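Late entry, written up from scratch paper. The run itself happened at the end of the previous shift, but nothing got recorded in the book at the time, so transcribing now.
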Amino acid sequence: MKNLFAILVLSTFSLISFSQGELAHNSVKPKTEIISKSIRVKLKNNSLRSYRLYIPNVIELESVKLGTNTFCMSQGQEMYLVLEGKNYLLLTANSADRNSYNLRKLVKKRKNELGLK
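Output as recorded:
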């Protein structure tokens, strides 16, 4: 009876430790997978005007005058330009595109496309 109890206890502990190891192994993603999905986007503002930018569920900020803002964005994530309380799509993160932009030129181009002044 004692031997049966000991075997039962040992088998239970080995099953618990095996399942916890399996859970830990499945829940941890390799760093290379996480890094490959994020895209570093650099916005250089060479004007004296600051722009309000908005990345949904991440951040809303004023761009730096005569400065640079750098963001890590996910593939396909969108960044909006906020003008007069309205959000206008400025860019979508894409690994195939270049990752460095002149913010003043990008805003000017987008405003022309939208017919804004």
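Strands lie at 38-45, 52-55, 59-62, 67-74, 78-83, 86-92, 100-102.
(Scratch paper discarded after transcription.)
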